[in-house]
Specification:
Strand content: 15-25%
Shape: globular
Low-confidence stretches: 297-302
Largest sheet: 6 strands, mixed
Number of domains: 3
Radius of gyration: 26 Å
Distance between the termini: 44 Å
Number of strands: 17
Length: 445
């Protein structure tokens, strides 16, 4: 049975093409949604770009007919802009104030009541990314759903970058004898589609301590031993197996894209900075170490902060400086600035200033990448020039962006889209190493 979908403003601001995502059903856009989109269209950030995209899309549809009468879509279904749709009276008795959210709810409620009077009523569904709007809809007896079409993966399918297999001890012995395992041979016993640069922990299924740590090669046809020893770099050594996997990816020059995810305190930033310093200062593989993180929300003017650009950036970049101070073992306040000024090969920037650039021959670290949208992360990764390496890292569970979640943000998007590519590698760090207190806080709070 066909349905009627009433869209909230946040759905269109998150995905301007959402009107085409409801197959052969009727899509209703309340007039107040157009007002809210109009208020956002002059913004210089991602929301402003999406608002302008929605405006152009609706203007293009308007050429096919009158939007308030309804227009058939090429992919099936129809779209209609609802000007008022009866009275606000029914909703005012419950929620009182005439807010924009309540006006959207009123449209959905009146459609629902109209359909109930028909012989074959169509289900009316309010689609919103606002939790409280969905709760209000439930109170009114209206079916409400989150907009999930933009999600990269489901809640159970986030790619960790490694897997653990319990195998016959003979397979582990075969690996140590030949120094590799064929994926075709492994698939005879353990059918699994390995991804390029995916790590594999082999454990004895009989319960002994025999084990092995392997990594799929670039075409995922064989499993090889790790090429790095477990020696510390810049005083930083791997404290757990996932950190060792991360260093393997960070120090491999044949992998120009690395993604790291994990809770606070798992060592993402520290490991990436240590690897970058080794490649810049010790091996001279890259010309410069560029470290950037979003000024949340990305693209927002930071002119309200006092001082010159570097002074404005300092509060946002402080986590980066904290890690650099640890790596350089500075003793006094201000020492790290003198060191960075003297070296000249380390640049700390806000992502506001990275757009429009081409960045060749550099080791690029993007921290807090979970706060990037799909469009923003595409803009950033496409800046990477020849001979550069980019590291995207963050915690998908800690997102400050109003319309993103763990399954629709730019970092998760890159992980899932690149996991089958031989030029990328990913690892999810699980164990916190900042301190016992920090690990308990991440787990319990």
């Amino acid at each position: 049975m066909k349905k009627v979908y009433v869209l909230d403003t946040n759905v269109l601001l998150q995905d301007p093409n959402a009107v085409f995502a409801f197959e052969d059903n009727e899509v209703i856009i309340p007039a107040v949604v157009l007002e809210e989109i109009d208020a956002k269209k002059r913004n210089a950030d991602e929301l402003g770009r999406n608002a302008r995209t929605v405006s152009r899309l609706l203007d293009g549809l308007r050429e096919k007919g009158r939007l308030h009468d309804g227009i058939d879509l090429e992919r099936g279904g129809s779209i209609k802009v609802e000007l008022n749709h009866r009275s606000f009276q029914k909703l005012q008795d419950l929620f009182g104030e005439i807010t924009n959210d309540n006006r959207i709810l009123a449209v959905a409620l009146n459609y629902h009541l109209e359909e109930q009077q028909k012989t074959e009523p169509r289900p009316v569904v309010l689609v919103s990314k606002d939790t409280l709007v969905r709760i209000k809809a439930d109170v009114l007896g209206i079916t409400a759903e989150d907009y999930l079409t933009d999600r990269v993966v489901s809640t159970t399918d986030l790619y960790p970058g490694y897997l653990t297999l319990h195998v016959h001890p003979g397979i582990i012995d075969s690996f140590y004898n030949a120094r590799f395992l064929s994926v075709a041979e492994m698939n005879q016993y353990y059918p699994y589609k390995f991804h390029p640069h995916e790590f594999v922990i082999l454990k004895d299924e009989l319960g002994t301590s025999k084990s092995a740590l392997l990594k799929a090669n670039a075409d995922a046809k064989r499993l090889d031993p790790l090429f790095l020893s477990n020696e510390p770099i810049w005083g930083i050594g791997a404290r757990n197996v996932q950190q060792r996997m991360a260093l393997e990816l960070l120090l491999n020059d044949d992998i120009p894209l690395v993604t790291l995810t994990g809770k606070a305190g798992t060592g993402k930033t520290l490991l990436a900075l240590a690897a970058g310093l080794m490649k810049i200062e010790d091996e001279r593989k890259y010309k410069k170490l560029l470290i950037a993180r979003p000024v949340v929300p990305m693209g927002k003017d930071i002119g309200y902060l006092p001082g010159e650009k570097d002074e404005k950036l300092r509060p946002w970049m402080q986590p980066i400086y904290d890690n650099l101070e640890f790596l350089f073992d500075t003793k006094k306040a201000g020492d790290i600035e003198k060191i960075l000024a003297g070296m000249g090969s380390i640049q700390v920037e806000a992502l506001t200033y990275i757009r429009g650039r081409s960045i060749p021959g550099q080791f690029i670290i993007i921290d807090e990448a979970q706060n990037l949208s799909k469009h923003e992360v595409k803009t950033i990764v496409s800046r990477v020039g020849e001979g550069s390496k980019i590291v995207l890292m963050g915690d998908p569970e800690q997102i400050d962006h109003p319309y993103l979640d763990a399954y629709s943000n730019g970092l998760t998007y890159v992980v899932e889209r690149f996991k089958a590519q031989g030029i990328s590698g990913h690892i999810n760090l699980e164990r916190g190493e900042r301190s016992h207190l920090a690990q308990l806080a991440a787990d319990l709070l």
